[in-house]
Structure formats: structure tokens, C-alpha cells
Amino acid sequence: MLDSDVAMYHYETKYINLVVRRNKERFPENFCFQLTKEEFDKRKVTRKYLQSRE
Length: 54
Fold this sequence. Notes:
Elements: H1 3-8, H2 13-22, H3 37-52
């Protein structure tokens, strides 16, 4: 789930991060991850490409 996905539900990412941080034992170790700048940029380009094909 990315920030944009969380925003659809009217939640701020910082609150999701807070809940996960306070309840680490309830979430799998790989539940959260952070994209590198390169990964984020690549995702943006891919998303724009896919949207242009709709």
C-alpha cells in the first residue's frame, strides 16, 4: 500500500506508520518498506505510461 492508496481512505501516512510502530508484533517484518528515489521515479513513469494507455 502506497501513500496514494492510504489517501483514498482519508488517512494520513504518518498515522498508519504510528500504528505499525506501536504494534510491531502484530505486523510481519516485511509489512512496511520505503522506496528509494530511483524506485519511486520509476514507479511514477510506469504509472503515467499505464494511465496513458487507458
